[in-house]
Design the sequence.
């Protein structure tokens, strides 16, 4: 096969193995200049491994990688960057204490005899920022930038290095709707300039907007390609999971019981203002609103991670004093955090140790941990939740996002908590793993647990909840009983402060 003149990137027969895992199985991938190719697949399908091969972070065991028809042999990430390939990972690679300009030019600073030409550096950064529509002060420290601004700094880093191939890994995961629209326009502009873009996302509506083609992976192999005209949601899902999902949200008809958890007039600064809520046995209560509405801040009070300025919390009619998360855990309340990497897991420890951390009392006797009992219990959850792992001692950092979320779920299921709080439970997770999480939420509700689900995905809110609370700037704007007359428009109206008739 002769490489087309416009073809920027070609991977042929890429194979990669890790201990106990065949991560990539003879994968082919092609990217032309001026096109956006979506890379799709469930968590664990091999997407992350493939883009790390593209970025020089992993070396393939077999196969070849070419840029502009020239075979490359990269042994480190800077090799790929020198060849014009830039990877923008979901976790940004920025130095928080340095300015935006310093991050953009880190490692390639314009110098005279060891002295950085700061004026020239800032001028070039302003020029690149203007090119991509970024209204960022070059002197602003990166730890004070928004997520969207940090992403623009990453893109500027790539353009300053004259990257012609841009790989974006879940670029919209933490962006607002307005920021996502701006990202779309930027991608259109980059394509016009001949830059090739690899776009990795679990948000299928984005794929339909930005992609010219989609390459789908499953279990480490390329299983198909869809043209622009074929980018149909149902077809994408079927190819990704290998079967049809008749119903994306397996909502069940429930009859909630008695009130389990109640909060009355909770206040904390300007983030949580006079919030009262309750969740019943066998109920899924959704908490939604725009970014910054105070949803996470509210559930942190319920979990003891923060203390309210005022207000009361009761579980089964008994008042709780929650000074720290351990108090909530002992009372029977658990939280699957929005940021599972920073707050839900200890990434440098094994998945079995992560599973055991909140359950040490159960698995220990007189200060000694019964590793055998811990391992047996964890094995049960690996089977029940279908967690894809190479072994109990695999580091949590080595799992895909969906499998990390399942490990977090497993440790709380072992606690047999009465109230489970899911904060953005399916963010960054593929449709197959989402469906499994939804099924577990249904099972827990059926067992009489009370569930609070925070979600920014309105179809998810409507597809899974029994009642919906909508927040805006720390205040409760309305309470809705879910049903056919509740729409995304209804929820958005409340989220921006407009009244709707059904609001209680």
Sequence:
């Amino acid at each position: 096969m002769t490489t087309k003149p416009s073809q920027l990137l070609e991977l042929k027969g890429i194979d990669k193995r890790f201990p106990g895992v065949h991560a990539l199985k003879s994968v082919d991938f092609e990217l032309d200049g001026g096109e956006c190719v979506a890379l799709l697949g469930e968590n664990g399908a091999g997407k992350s491994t493939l883009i790390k091969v593209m970025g020089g972070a992993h070396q393939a065991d077999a196969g070849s990688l070419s840029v502009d028809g020239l075979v490359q042999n990269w042994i480190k990430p800077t090799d790929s960057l020198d060849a014009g390939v830039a990877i923008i990972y979901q976790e940004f690679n920025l130095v928080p204490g340095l300015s935006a300009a310093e991050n953009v030019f880190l490692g390639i600073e314009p110098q005279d005899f060891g002295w950085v030409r700061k004026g020239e550096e800032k001028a070039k950064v302003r020029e690149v920022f203007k090119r991509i529509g970024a209204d960022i002060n070059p002197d602003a420290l990166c730890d004070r930038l928004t997520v969207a601004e940090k992403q623009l700094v990453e893109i500027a880093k790539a353009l300053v290095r004259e990257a012609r191939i841009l790989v974006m890994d879940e670029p919209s995961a933490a962006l607002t709707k307005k920021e996502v629209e701006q990202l779309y326009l930027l991608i259109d502009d980059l394509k016009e300039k001949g830059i090739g873009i690899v776009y990795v996302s679990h948000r299928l509506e984005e794929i339909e907007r930005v992609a010219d083609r989609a390459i789908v992976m499953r279990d480490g192999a390329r299983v198909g390609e869809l043209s622009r005209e074929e980018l149909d949601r149902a077809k994408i899902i079927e190819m990704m999971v290998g079967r049809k999902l008749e119903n994306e949200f397996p909502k069940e008809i429930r009859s909630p019981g008695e009130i389990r958890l109640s909060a009355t007039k909770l206040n904390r600064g300007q983030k949580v203002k006079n919030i009262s809520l309750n969740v019943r046995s066998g109920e899924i209560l959704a908490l939604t609103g725009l970014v910054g509405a105070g949803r996470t801040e509210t559930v942190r009070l319920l979990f003891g991670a923060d203390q309210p300025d005022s207000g009361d919390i009761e579980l089964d009619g008994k008042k709780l004093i929650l000074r720290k998360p351990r108090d909530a855990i002992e009372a029977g309340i658990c939280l699957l955090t929005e940021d599972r990497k920073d707050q839900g897991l200890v990434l440098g420890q094994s998945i079995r140790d992560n599973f055991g951390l909140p359950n040490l009392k159960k698995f220990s006797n007189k200060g000694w941990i019964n590793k055998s009992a811990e391992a047996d219990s964890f094995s049960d959850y690996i089977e029940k939740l279908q967690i894809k792992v190479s072994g109990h001692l695999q580091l949590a950092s080595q799992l895909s996002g969906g499998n990390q979320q399942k490990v977090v779920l497993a440790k709380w299921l072992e606690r047999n908590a009465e109230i489970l709080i899911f904060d953005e439970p399916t963010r960054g997770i593929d449709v197959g793993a989402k469906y499994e999480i939804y099924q577990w939420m249904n099972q827990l509700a059926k067992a009489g647990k009370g569930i609070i689900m925070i979600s920014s995905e309105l179809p998810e809110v409507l597809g899974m909840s029994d009642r919906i609370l909508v927040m805006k700037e720390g205040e409760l704007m309305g309470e809705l009983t879910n049903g056919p007359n509740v729409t995304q428009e209804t929820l958005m109206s409340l989220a921006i402060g407009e009244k709707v008739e059904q609001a209680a």
Remarks:
- Residues 1-5 have pLDDT under 50 and may be disordered.
- The radius of gyration is 24 Å.
- The CA atoms of residues 191 and 406 lie 37 Å apart.
